[in-house]
Amino acid sequence: MEFISDVGGFLVKAVILVAALIIIIGVIANAAQRKKDEKGELHIRNLSNDLRDTTDKIRLQLLDKKERKKSFKKLQKERKAQAKGGSDKPEQRLFVIDFHGSMDAHEVASLTREVNAVLAVATSDDAVFVRLESGGGVVHGYGLGAAQLQRLRDHGLRVHVSVDKVAASGGYMMACIAHEIHAAPFAIVGSIGVIAQLPNFHRWLKKHDVDFEQLTAGEYKRTLTLFGENTEQGRQKFKDDLENIHKQFKSFVKEHRPEVDIDKVATGEIWTGQEAIELKLVDEVITSDAWLLKRVDEYRIYKVEYQTKKGLGERLGRHTTAMLRSLKEFVAVKHG
């Protein structure tokens, strides 16, 4: 038993050493990767077949054994005819785009490529369905995201946005572009407001006799600062800037959803999908899957996705996480 314990201890140390090396290599690899242009591939997937299979299975399960066998044969003939381009095959296309936005909205780069792909082939008979999830973030990033979705409308396409979890602040700004917004019952929407916050270390620096100098040209080049002494004049100017952005945000929402009582909803508050429909912030309470299933016979549905290639650092990080998880389980068993 002592021998086994020694071997186990050696393995634990070896795994920790290897994990540490992988982390160091990953950090170096990520630093190198940042210097390269982002590369990826565009993927187009036919969702119609998947959705039809789901619908068919549900319908068949609701029948008795005899009717199920008869209906199954009928469905097989219909699907074969559709695969060959039968006359009952929908002519309209629905392009599905997923957008999961983070604070810095870096996902807009992939969204741009996806929008470009749709615009290259879409006609005015087609439509776009955006499954959007975001709690908001930087103004310029989400403003650009909204502009990308606006390109779809400018092209004459019908745009739908679906929110299963959250579309708040900048996320809701993007959602407003849609002709129709669909939200799950307990999805969070709204937060039509602006926030900015930063710490100030001036008193700590002063206490430790550390001088901080900041030179600017222009009265309001810098209003609030991390290290200098902030003034009431600077605070007021900073707040005025926030109020100006909020005013533009409100105008943007009002322009795209004129039926909304903007003064009532532009308070920074959030609402669930069930509450939001009463405030006219959304048009329908429904999940994205349910909405797509109802359109499976109306459109040929395609998922459009631009996937960035994962760098060496990210791949090593995944392997390191898996290794550490295995190590944790091993240690738990050893000492259990």
UniProtKB/TrEMBL annotation:
Q: What is its main location?
A: membrane
Gene3D superfamilies documented for this protein: 2-enoyl-CoA Hydratase, Chain A, domain 1 (3.90.226.10), 6.20.330.10
Assigned keywords, A-Z = Cell membrane, Hydrolase, Membrane, Protease, Serine protease, Transmembrane, Transmembrane helix
Segments crossing the lipid bilayer: 12-32
Q: What GO terms fall under cellular component here?
A: plasma membrane
The family database entries (InterPro entries) matched by this protein are listed as: ClpP/crotonase-like_dom_sf, Peptidase_S49, Peptidase_S49_N_proteobac, S49_SppA_C
Q: Name one Pfam family in it.
A: Peptidase_S49
Write down the SUPFAM superfamilies for this protein, in alphabetical order. Answer: ClpP/crotonase (SSF52096)
Localization, per the record, is: Cell membrane
What GO biological process terms are annotated to this protein in UniProt? proteolysis
Q: Give start and end of each Peptidase S49 N-terminal proteobacteria domain.
A: 2-149
Residues covered by the Peptidase S49 domain? 152-291
Citing just one GO molecular function, the answer is: serine-type endopeptidase activity
Record family assignment: Belongs to the peptidase S49 family.
Please name the NCBIfam families in this protein's record.
PRK11778.1
Protein's name in the database: Inner membrane peptidase. Serine peptidase. MEROPS family S49
